[in-house]
Amino acid sequence: MQDNDKTSDKVKDETKVKDQQNPWQDKWLVAYTKPRQELVALQNLERQNFEAYLPRYKKFKNTEIGPVPVFEPMFPRYILFRPSKAEQSIETVRSTKGISHVVRFGFEPGVVSSSMVATIQAFEASQHQATLQEMSNFKAGQKVKLKHVGLGALEGLVQSVSAKRVAVLLEILGRPTLVQVDHHQVEALG
Questions:
Q1: pTM to 2 decimals?
Q2: pLDDT tens digits for 33-71?
Q3: For residue 11, what pLDDT band results from cuts at 50, 70 and 90?
Q4: Among 18, 32, 122, 148, which residue carries the largest CB count within 10 Å?
């Protein structure tokens, strides 16, 4: 009789452990943020002890001092998260500041595989190390067109690319002329 009681207590304990395990703890879930609120959502998810990840890409913004690196969300309005503790409920995410709702497919939350997240993180790390020259759409020898209306959309060849300017070889009045222009003043030709 005592053996049956011990066995049933052991089964009850195992059931409790299974009930306490969170099915979402090892999975990355997707939340849809309010417009331009990705960083607010990230901070608030982290405050609630969720593991949160906002993939970002590096781009260069032209300013008076030249191109400056800025980091923008790779997937605007989407953020990844997962519970950091087994007892943590994902239902609190719905009312998190910056979050619109948890992405769902039917009744199941949207899940992104850990391998996909690792791939995104590896790409993000390598891209954040890149310089403007490495990320530039322009390469030496490439055909480009000047965007300036006054120059009649002149075509030329890229000679070099620097952090602030692109050197373009143009033919002006029958003579080859090297012109330095800002990145946004040039567009690549097919």
A1: 0.66
A2: 999 999 999 999 999 999 999 999 988 787 777 778 899
A3: very low
A4: 32
* CB-based contact 187:148 (threshold 8 Å): no
Average pLDDT, rounded, for the chain: 84
Q: Quick one: tokens of 178?
A: 């090297």
SS3 per residue for the chain: CHHHHHHHHHHHHHHHHHHHCCCCCCCEEEEEECCCCHHHHHHHHHHCCEEEECCEEEEEEEECCEEEEEEEECCCCEEEEEECCCCCCHHHHHHCCCEEEECEECCEECEECHHHHHHHHHHHHHHHHCCHHHHCCCCCCCEEEECCHHHCCCEEEEEEECCCEEEEEEEECCEEEEEEEEHHHEEECC
Give how far Cα 53 sits from Cα of 30, 65, 99, 127, 174, Å.
Answer: 10, 31, 14, 16, 55
Q: State which amino acid sits at residue 153.
A: A
For residue 107, CA distances in Å to 29, 35, 60 come to 13, 24, 40
- Encoded tokens for 141: 């020898």
Structure tokens at 52: 């949160």
